[in-house]
Amino acid sequence: MEYINKSILNEKILEDLKKNKIDHMTYLPDMEVLKSDIMDKVLKAVKNYNYYRYTKSDVLYALEKENLSPEDFAALLSPAAAPLLEEIAQKARIITKKHFGNSIYIFTPIYIANYCENYCIYCGFNCHNKINRAKLNEQEIEKEMKAISETGLQEILILTGESRTKSDITYIGEACKIARKYFKLIGLEIYPVNSEEYAYLHKCGADYVTVFQETYNADKYQTLHLSGHKRIFPYRFYAQERALKGGMRGVGFAALLGLDDFRKDAFATGYHAYTLQKKYPHAEIAFSCPRLRPIINNDKINAMNVHEKELLQVVCAYRLFMPFANITISTRECARVRDNMVNIAATKISAGVNTGIGEHADDIASKGDGQFEISDERSVYEVYHTLLKNHLQPVMSDYIYV
C-alpha cells in the first residue's frame, strides 16, 4: 500500500476496505470464464524467471539470432543486458526498419468519461479520489471527434473510466459508431467485458482493444486493486483473448512499469502476447510501455527503478522478441524520450493528447479531470513535423475499408 496518499483516505473508506472480502482470483457471477491455460503458463513462467542467472554470453547469443525464444527474451530483459544496451538498440533499430521502414503511426486518445467504480490506489480516476467527474453525451462526443479529425488524424483510441453504470456497453458502442464517421481505425481502452460484448463493440466499429494488466504479480495486484471489478485478476488477464473471440482484429498489452518488479512485468507482458498469438496467429499484436505517472491528489507517485535506460531496454526487448508488433510510446514520456524511441524501436506515437474529459472542442462545458499527468504536450502538427525533420514518415492510417 505504499502508493496510497493518506490525505484521501478517511475512516469510512478504511472500514469499507476491511469489509472487502472479495477474492481477487475468483470470478464474479457476471464474468465470462474461458477454457484457456494461457494464464497458468504465463504465471508459471514469471514465477520461474530469475533474471540474475543470465550472463553476457546469453545476451550475445540472443542478439545473434533472427527468431528469439522466450528464453532469449528473458535474457534481453536481464541486468546482464544493461551494459550491452547500445548493441541491443542498434539491432532493434535494424529490425524495426526491416519490418516498418520509416513509418510512424500517429493517433490520439479521447476520454469520454472519467467515472470509475474501482479503487486502484495509483490511478487518478479511482472512485475515492476527489476529482471533477464528467461524461460526454453523444453530441459532445461528436464535437470532440470532429475537432480531432480536423487535425488530420485518422486513428482514435476511445477511453472511459471503469464504470458500467455510467459508461455502459451501449454508450461505448454509440461512441464507436460516431467515431466511424470520422476515423478509419478505432481502438478501445475500456473496462474488460465478455466476448459477446466485444463482438457488439466490434460491430459498432471498434477494431482493436488495449488492456493494461498493470502488474502480473497476482499478490501485488491484490494490494493495489482494493475494490471493484478490476480487482479480479484472471478476468482482466483474459480480456485480450475474449476480444479476439469477439472478432477484434488486434489486441494491445501493457504493464504499468514501476508498480512492481519491472523486469518480471515486462517479461510477463511479452510472454502473454507471444502465447496468445501462438493460439490466434491472425491477431495483430501491440505493446504499450507506460511508466507510472503522478495523479491529481498524489504527486508523489513515480515509477520505481524504471529510468530511461531501463525503459529503452524493455522497448528494444519487445521489438527483438516480436518483430511485427506495434510499440507505442505515450505522452507519459517527454518529447526527447519519445523522439529517441521512434528512431530506434517504437512505431506508434500519440499526439495532441489531453487525458481530461471534453478538452478538444472549445464549447463543451462538462469537462472532467485527467487520469494522470502527461509530459509531452505537443500538438499533432508539432509531432508530425518533428517526425519529418527526423527523416521519419508520419502515417495517419494504412487501412482501407471496401
Order of helices and strands: HHHHHEEHEHEHEHEHHEHEHEHEHE
Provide the spatial order of strands within the biggest beta sheet: 1-3-4-5-7-8-9-10
Estimated radius of gyration: 20 Å
Q: How would you sum up the major sheet?
A: 8 strands, parallel, barrel
Which percent band covers the strand fraction? 5-15%
- Structural class label: alpha/beta
Overall pLDDT:
90
Principal-axis shape: globular
The number of helices is 15
Termini separation: 51 Å
**Helical content, roughly?**
25-40%
Compute the number of strand runs.
Answer: 11
Which runs of at least 5 residues are low in confidence (pLDDT < 50)?
A: 1-10
How would you characterize this protein structure?
The protein has 402 residues and is α/β, with parallel strands linked by helices. The chain has 15 helices and 11 strands. The chain has helices at residues 11-19, 38-47, 56-64, 70-76, 85-100, 138-149, 169-180, 195-204, 218-224, 233-237, 239-245, 262-279, 308-321, 335-342, 380-389; strands at 103-113, 119-120, 155-160, 185-189, 208-214, 225-227, 250-255, 284-288, 326-329, 348-350, 393-395. The strands form 2 sheets. It has an 8-stranded parallel β-barrel with strand order 1-3-4-5-7-8-9-10, surrounded by 7 helices. Helix 5 packs across helix 13. The protein is globular and about 60 Å long. The termini are far apart. Residues 1-10 have low confidence and may be disordered.
